[in-house]
Design goal:
The N and C termini lie far apart (58 Å). The radius of gyration is 23 Å and the shape is elongated. The chain has 249 residues and is α/β, with parallel strands linked by helices. The chain has two domains: 202 residues, TIM Barrel (Alpha-Beta Barrel), CATH 3.20.20.70; 32 residues. An eight-stranded parallel beta barrel has the order 1-2-3-4-5-6-7-8, surrounded by six helices. It contains twelve helices and eight strands. Helix content is 47%, strand content 17%. Helix 5 runs parallel beside helix 6.
């Protein structure tokens, strides 16, 4: 892989074995999770899973998310989760399910020294308001879901570049390019000066392709199609026979 990335690569997932496999790679600088990833991974006990992972990963940041919808309960969960380890960042959604912004809660937590990762942002207005709430507080992340912006047909690069500029006056905040859709997003995030990008193991595996000769890659693709057809045993004998019968004599 390209070892010269300035951007920090964070692994996104909730499967312990995969997380530990990536933990062994020095270029993985941190980890993020969320309740949806945990559900997909079959995690039944949220706290037991988190504490188990933290017993193995103690020296890189890991984000665990609250799952309440009322701000007082979110605050209680955030303070409890923050106590699991010095490397824990608590993910706070930018709003609750009723569109009520969490800026007040974020301000209280950061002023109290809780490291937060404000998540699910998609607009620059949200970036502006969250950064103001985090100003002068503990170390914090702002996660903008660039991949979801792209899913709507919009190019996320201009918005992410603007977010980078917006955060320059706030030395305690780092911007996360969240939900990337392809490896190219790592290079796009790097080019605009984004601090961090999260990526799933499937995307991170593609780092081995960086710099690969495209002619060789073309041959690999042809070989894959050929091998897969042979493995399945596809046959067009009748078509070949029919074609031979059509050849004029």
């Amino acid at each position: 892989m390209n070892a010269n990335f300035k951007i920090k690569l964070f692994a996104d997932g909730a499967e312990k074995n995969a997380m530990l496999e990536l933990y062994a790679k020095p270029y993985i600088r941190g980890f993020t999770t969320n309740p949806t990833l945990m559900r997909k991974a079959g995690v039944a006990d949220y706290e037991a899973f988190a504490r188990d992972v933290l017993s193995c990963i103690k020296d890189r940041p890991i984000s665990f998310e609250v799952f309440a919808d009322e701000f007082d309960e979110m605050e209680a969960q955030a303070n409890y989760i923050a106590g699991w380890g010095d490397n824990v960042y608590v993910k706070i959604p930018v709003t609750n399910t009723r569109r009520e912004p969490s800026y007040g809660l974020v301000r209280r937590l950061t002023k109290a020294g809780v490291k937060v990762n404000v998540t699910a942002l998609l607009t620059l207005e949200q970036v502006r308001d969250v950064s103001q709430a985090l100003d002068g507080g503990a170390a914090a992340y702002i996660s903008v879901f660039a991949g979801r912006i792209a899913d709507t047909g919009l190019d996320p690069v201009p918005a992410m570049a603007a977010a980078v500029s917006m955060l320059r006056p706030y030395p305690n905040i780092e911007l996360i390019w969240a939900s990337p859709r392809e490896l190219l997003n790592v290079f796009q995030a790097e080019a605009i000066g984004c601090h961090i990008i999260t990526a799933t193991p499937d995307i991170l595996k593609k780092l081995t392709l960086v710099g690969k000769d495209l002619t060789d890659y073309s041959l690999d693709t042809v070989q894959m199609f050929y091998d897969d057809a042979r493995k399945v045993g596809y046959s067009l004998k009748q078509a070949v026979k029919a074609g031979a019968e059509c050849i004029p004599v």
